[in-house]
Specification:
It contains 11 helices and no strands. By secondary structure, the chain is mainly alpha-helical.
Length: about 230
């Protein structure tokens, strides 16, 4: 399979991501523009942050005059799941070209598609992963730029747009709940989030993430001990 064929396959496999990223990206661009941030902010965020949930969160944090350090820490906590993705990709990405760029490009959707494609030989799989990752990033960047331009041409009521990523994750969680046999991790996540919200209100993200990770580690160790 030559490079053109691999690229064509990556493009076809990325089409579902194209539709999703364009819609979500446009929403983000419109939201940023409505809050007073133009393409000078939108483009760097999409180029160097590249996290849908993190960027939607950043739009709210920037509008609330949160410090850049606080914004960075909060976004890191929200996207800590990528650490787990990274651990599972250590073997696949061990000898891959442009490894730092590939690690940066890893998103939920990219991760799912790359892991679903295991039939290709190693070298071709690396090329496929590179093309797919680059395409996905370009879709998101194009969507956010389009949203910024549209937001500057028309006046929108942006109420509810910042909930779009929450709605997306709720949909994903519901599907996972229906398909999973073990609901304990989801219950732990919900419970910790509710308790942290009651205790810390607007600053609940980091405490809830720490609590979730800590409790999951404990439960996993207990399960391992019981299975011995």
């Amino acid at each position: 399979m030559d490079k053109n064929t691999i690229f064509k396959k990556a493009f076809i496999d990325s089409l579902p991501v194209l539709t999703g990223y364009l819609c979500l990206g446009i929403g983000f661009g419109i939201l940023m523009k409505a809050r007073g941030y133009g393409l000078a902010y939108i483009i760097p965020l999409s180029l160097f942050a590249f996290t849908g949930s993190g960027q939607y969160l950043a739009a709210g944090l920037l509008a609330s005059d949160v410090s850049l350090l606080g914004c960075a820490i909060t976004i890191f906590a929200v996207n800590a799941r990528y650490l787990l993705y990274g651990f599972s990709m250590l073997d696949d990405y061990r000898d891959i070209r442009f490894k730092p760029l590939m690690v940066f490009w890893l998103t939920d959707e990219t991760y799912a598609i790359i892991n679903n494609e295991k039939a290709l030989p190693k070298k071709q799989h690396h090329q496929y992963a590179f093309y797919l990752s680059a395409l996905d990033h370009s879709y998101w960047l194009a969507g956010t730029i389009a949203g910024g331009i549209i937001g500057g041409l028309f006046v929108f009521n942006t109420k509810g747009i910042d909930f779009v990523m929450t709605a997306l994750f709720l949909t994903i969680m519901t599907e996972q709940w229906l398909n999973a046999r073990n609901h304990l991790p989801a219950i732990i996540g919900i419970a910790c989030s509710i308790i942290a919200t009651l205790l810390f209100k607007g600053d609940m993200v980091i405490p809830s993430m720490i609590a979730i990770i800590f409790i999951l580690i404990i439960t996993r160790n207990l399960e391992a001990m019981n299975n011995e």
